[in-house]
Amino acid sequence: MNDLVKSGPGKAIPVERRKNLSLEEFKNHYRKKGIPVVMEGVADNWDCVKKWSLEYFKELHGDDVIAITSYQLKNSYETITLGELIDNIHSGGDKYYRFYPLLYRHPEHIKDFDYKWLLERKNPLTWFDSWQVFMGGKDTVTPIHSESQCNLYIQAVGIKKWVMYPPYYTMVLDPTPVRNVYRNPALKAEKAPFNPFTPDYTTYPEYQYLDRYEVELKPGDVLFNPCFSWHTVKNLTDSIGVGYRWVTPLYALKISPLYAFLDLCATHPPVWKAFKLYIEDTNQVRLVESGNLEKYLKEKAEKEELQKAKRNST
Predict the structure, then answer these.
(1) Widest CA span of the chain, in angstroms?
(2) Which CATH number do you get for residue 114?
(3) CA 25 to chain CA mean position, Å
């Protein structure tokens, strides 16, 4: 802490915004060195930007039964439909759905992206890739966390702000010990996690000395978020975004040898099962951790039967 204080207040570093960034420069500079970058307007003509809206998803997939899990309350989750979530957003509610496995449930939406463009920017020798959609209303926030996946994040609807802390601050953030592959910084007793959008430097004085990347994404922007980067996001408007993620063991080992090794030692769930659940529904990883997976799957099946009966009756 003394060394941090001596270094002075941390700086907010704008993430570079690049138009027409070449594939080679992306690979050899940003991806190779683990530097975030926004490829501005790349997705402007993709259907996920041109066609998507909350109403679009409610009409097509409003009956999908989903789990909304909490980053702050270990045992907290809710089983609802996608339509109920969207109604909550429209009414000004605070529900934020993370990790919607859109392509796993509805693979026809692959046509909404330039998949070839994304594949060209992925590391070679990956273990898996996954697609996760994020839907939330204005002012909803995901607290600071870190994981081993790299991410090309496509902003489809609305505006979202990202704040990222480089992996070399991991020891300062002092992650809470876990047995899975998701990590959160230390939580001060009886306090909420540190939130850079409304910073509490009295409870978390160390954060005022950390350099951080900041950027606001608008529709059509694609952000490269390197693996093991600590990040938090806030929806400045109603928002829909898509994370195209992958794990490359050798690259992860280069960025953070300790946490790449600890991922291999995960037991709750083990890493092989965690990666399978990432593809099916990443929320299930959190449900395994809290011991609620079987309960949720039962609730999901029951709610799906009710949805089916309702459709048949009409």
Answers:
(1) 69
(2) 2.60.120.650
(3) 25
